[in-house]
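Handoff note, outgoing to incoming analyst
You'll be picking up this chain. Sequence as last confirmed:
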Amino acid sequence: MASVASLYEMVVEGIDGHNIDLAKYKGKKILIVNTASARGFTPQ
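Most recent structure output, in case you need it:
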């Protein structure tokens, strides 16, 4: 994994599989939750 200086330099995969560029949230309050929903770790 590459080193980043800021959270806003990261692009993460959303639960729907699309990439989310965190730079578009700079200056806003965000809550990041790891749901592990598509990985089989939650007995739902």
